[in-house]
Amino acid sequence: MDRIDPLPPSMRWAEHLARDRRRSVHTVRAYQASAERLTAFLVGHWGERVDRTTLARVTAADLRAYLAQRRDAGLGNASAARELSAVRGFLSWANAAAEQPRLRGPRVKTGVPRPISPAEVMALAEEVADDAAEPWIAARDWAVLLLLYGAGLRIGEALALTGAVLPLGETIRVMGKRAKTRVVPLLPQVREAIEAYAAQTPWPIARAEPLFRGAKGGPLSPVMIRRSVRMARARLGLGDRTTPHALRHSFATHLLGRGADLRALQELLGHASLSSTQVYTQVDAAHLMDVYRNAHPRA
Q: Of 112, 135, 244, 256, which shows the fewest CB atoms inside 10 Å?
């Protein structure tokens, strides 16, 4: 006869987060509360007791019903994205062998950039930073992702920045494709994120050395950022097209939707041809109306 665990799954998960994942007290408390809300919902939804075994039965339809209930209670877009991240992590822990239910966004025609909503951008950045091994690495990843979304940089451009950009002003000079240099405005939130990283990194930042460093002090590889984003999007239930480059797409799409001039946007993105910038005008208008419910950028 199987022994019944006297503690609810949400408490066991909280223990796992604190002991094995070394998450902060604040994170553990917030994630445990999300797990408790999901469990309480499932008890009423299914009409039966919920334990770690039965959690393997949760489907995408169950998650949609849960999020619908949370939205009826006044949950906003950003909070909904964070809630989904927390409950997916809980379900993944409950049955790591089971394939997790995925909630996909609307389809977009091939060839048209797929923007991410501001809520999804911030949930993704928070998830990546929260999973970092050290506080300074969390600050580094947060700063890199905000550069991609808040300044429209390519990942290679962001990681090519050197200590020469410090101290930061209202703009930075970026070396783009074909060695073409452009000046990009720095929003206050992006500037603060970079400064917070620079204050925490254990490695000296020399003018000729890379600004963003790896865990052992070498130049930060784009592979590490892509891997962190890939793992975070899986926990959040976001699609495979949610990549670091998609943050640049979101920067362009959101600015264009708020009335940015195509020529000005071309300069910001460093496109050699205006036709490369014009592709953003093809993004479905209905989707744009959805992503603009929140101001850009959400930082």
A: 135
